[in-house]
Amino acid sequence: MEKETVLNVGFDDTDSSKGMCTTFLAYKIVNLLHKQKTEFLDFPRLIRFNPNIPWKTRGNGAVSIKIKTKNPSKVKNQIKNLVSKYSDTKNGANPGLVFYESDLIPSEFVKFSNLALWQLINRNNAKKFAKKNNLEIYYQGNGQGLVGAIGAIGYDFHDHTLELLSYRKKPKFGKERKISAKSVKIMQEKTFPNTFNSFDTKKERILITPHGPDPVFYGVRGENVDSLLYATTILKSDEKLDGYMIFKSNQGTGDHLKNELNFKNMKPYASGKITGIVSNIPKIVKGGHIFFKIISKNHEFWCAVYKPTGISVIASNLIKGDKICVGGGVRKASKNFPRIINLEFLDVLVLKKNVSLSNPNCKKCNKKMKSKGQNQGFQCTRCGKKASKKIPVEISRKIKKQLYLPKISAHRHLTRPLQRIGTINKATKFDKSLSWFYVYRN
Fold it and tell me: Which range marks the domain in which residue 335 is found?
């Protein structure tokens, strides 16, 4: 009797800004393996890595799948062929494919994956990792995709969400997506809080459809399979779709911002968070963007809040002495500024009292006294009563001690939405009935 092998497959960077999609390649791989009656051991995994990498195409997502097979070499060749077929190398894709045969994933993989979440990893480091761990790899172009491919296999879930991605038929690639906005709004209302970030009610804007030429028609993010399947029954469109697949993902977990930034690790394009004290009056620059500094562990750091996030007004109301925690990506230094943290959240921890000195009130007339001149005190113009100095007055603050997130349309794939604050999802059980994958009949 042939022995069954557990095979982990990771792949990334198969798309470009002009077409294709790594999740669509996953859909094609799963379809092929499903026809061959392959046993799947988990959902396909869609892992979003550091969103501040400058050469990412869209959401910096890599995919891995875990299967049992009696013929691993045949499966590997089939997957290699599909990677070649569905990678947009002519437009700059640099696909990487990694195979690892084992049910258990070593801690080295997990460490590599954790690093890829918040730092920039050189592709040569991925090649060295593959060589050191005797991994079977395949890549085209410069092999940048190997970073995500290894990371997707090594990612260790502490919290997860699910995403149902529906795919278009080939003749529709690149054409306008038409879906009823009203149906998306109703779907969000009916499935809340088990789905998230589907519709921006303030802007009346659909958030589940991409805008590029890739094969995805829409993607619904949520907490469980049933809610996602129910969501698809509410959405209305005249377009006949090819099928759908549900991915287990780290989207909506805030995963990339869990690491503490400091003077040593705050390298360009790193992501993370930092707690400190506001050390200057925030500056408003052209366009309504806000820049300010915080001191953390005796070092000063610049922070930027851009107007489209919707939290620039909050940042403009900070004062020196406020204690805050901020999270975001590090922008490399420019002529005008050193390295800056571009904020993705602002958590106000302690508000300093905003005290201003004011002319004293006359207790008799209840009217503000007037200054008699420099160092000459103050006098009531009505009754003549005098006072020697100004009095401190507390000005009420326009912000509160709370977490401030960008508006929903400015969320990144990894942004943890308000409805998920304090939520840890570990409950999803993998269903071998294949309700997570479906190809529609013509």
Answer: 255-351+397-413
